[in-house]
Amino acid sequence: MRQSQIILRQIGRLGTMAIAQNSSPMNNPIMVHHNPAMLNRKRIGVLTPSSNTALEPLTSAMVSQLGNVSAHFSRFGVTEISLQEASSRQFNSDKILAAAQLLADARVDVICWSGTSASWLGFEKDDALCARISEVTGRPATTSVLALNEAMTLNHINRFGLITPYIQEVHDRIIKNYRNNGMACVADRHLNIQDNFSFAEIEPDQLANLIREVARDKPQAIVTMCTNLRAAQLVHNLEREIGIPIYDSVSAVVWKALRLIQIEPQRVCDWGQLFSENL
Questions:
Q1: Lower Cβ count inside 10 Å, N or C end of the chain?
Q2: What is the arithmetic mean of pLDDT over 229-236?
């Protein structure tokens, strides 16, 4: 027998042995989907500002604990935050709906706008947006701002602290909108930045210090308002330190999305007491 034929037979035997050794469900990708947890798989669709680099890894980290829940993202153009007309046009509903329809192609179970534009443009903007998304895609919809507002309402919070990276005019408009909605901002800090990409460059230690400063005025809760802040991962330890609930805008939309798809938020551990509250 030629040497080449002998080698081929040996390779074939090795391949057969490898298949046998990897035939367990954990090693065989064809068999993995028979896992009962994956049969009830849920998909969260997330609308994302194009220049945002914080919310995707944070959102994925939160839902990674759940096993049967995954996050999927669709972007549309957002590069700067101000009260100028050009900035407001970034949040045109037609652009957002186009991104939402792409998520619907992935058969997601819920669609979330993980952005805070309604906090300065008006809460009614997100109410209308969610209605349009559901009408066009047939999926339930929510937003970071609506989720934050719901969490504060359910917890009877009407005195809150606020931290944003935004310029003064935007920050002040947010405070005014909440005041008009019966919620008083009793302590606040902002960083006076307009470029959306730069928000994610703010160091977590700086954000932690701002939270500590706001906590001195003893608000009922502290809100970190901006989904391009790397703040959500700080919440668990800081809440223990300052003794005040911290509601982060990235965390809030995940919390609400889980409620909408009938997944218990309590299954998300170490991301703040919002997830552990029995609301």
A1: N
A2: 98
For 99-121, b where at least 16 C-beta lie within 10 A, e where not — what string? Answer: bbebbbeeebbbbbbbbbbbbbb
**Residue 118: closest CA among 268, 263, 252, 277:** 252
By three-state DSSP, how is residue 33 classified?
coil
Bridge-partner residues for 70, per DSSP? 43
Q: How many CB atoms lie within 10 A of CB 86?
A: 9
Cβ proximity of 199 and 190 under 8 Å: no
Q: Which of 258, 274, 58, 275 is nearest to 152 (CA)?
A: 274
**Residue 166 in 3-state DSSP?**
coil
- Quote the pLDDT of residue 1: 47
Predicted TM-score (pTM) of this structure = 0.85
The structure tokens listed for 51 are: 């220049």
Rg (CA), the chain: 23
List 248's β-bridge partners, or say none: 224
> Where does the pLDDT of residue 39 fall: very low under 50, low under 70, confident under 90, or very high at 90 and above?
low
Give the three-state DSSP class for 77: coil
Average predicted confidence (pLDDT) for the chain = 89
What does the alpha-carbon distance between residue 142 and residue 75 come to, in Å, rounded to a whole number?
16
Eight-state DSSP code of residue 202: S
pLDDT at 277: 78
| Residue located via tokens 């969260």 | 44
